[in-house]
Structure formats: C-alpha cells, structure tokens
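Regression test case RT-17, inverse folding.

Input:
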C-alpha cells in the first residue's frame, strides 16, 4: 500500500512541476484584468500546488524514507505532540 501511495505522490509532484510553467500559453496575447492570462495561470497553479502540498504534509509526510525494520523498534514517540521548549521534537 505504501509503495503505491509513494508512486501516486511522485506522479502528482511531476504533474505539479510540469504544469507550473504554462508553456502552452506562451505567445498568447490574451489579457485579463490587466495581466496576461499565462500569469493568471501561474498564480492559480501555485495556489493549487500549495493546497496539494498541505494535503501531502498532513497525510504522507515522510513517505518513502521510512525504514523497513521491525515495527517493534519504531522510532516514533508515544505522544507526537510533545515538543521541547525550543519548538523542536523531543529526543
């Protein structure tokens, strides 16, 4: 399951990066609200990409870098909300 999820997130990242630059709109002289349409595409796409990144951070942060060791030796804390006074993770 994790391997499939990793493949999906890789594909999402490639699509997000590939469409960040609106190459298909280059040469278009269309202007909307005083700005070229390719600029509106870029701004909108970056907004969409930030939402996708937020979803990734909430659901799959760290996917693909976990170890495959025995789960009894998991390095995760019992309380994931426990923080040090400096704001980092506790040891």
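Golden output:
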């Amino acid at each position: 399951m994790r391997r499939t999820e990793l493949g999906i997130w890789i594909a999402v990242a490639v699509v997000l990066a590939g469409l960040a630059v609106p190459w298909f709109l280059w040469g278009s002289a269309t202007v909307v609200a005083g700005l070229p349409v390719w600029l509106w595409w870029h701004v909108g796409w970056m907004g969409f990409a930030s939402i996708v990144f937020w979803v990734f951070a909430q659901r799959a942060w760290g996917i693909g870098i976990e170890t495959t060791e025995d789960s009894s030796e998991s390095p995760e804390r019992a309380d994931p909300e426990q923080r040090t006074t400096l704001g980092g993770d506790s040891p």
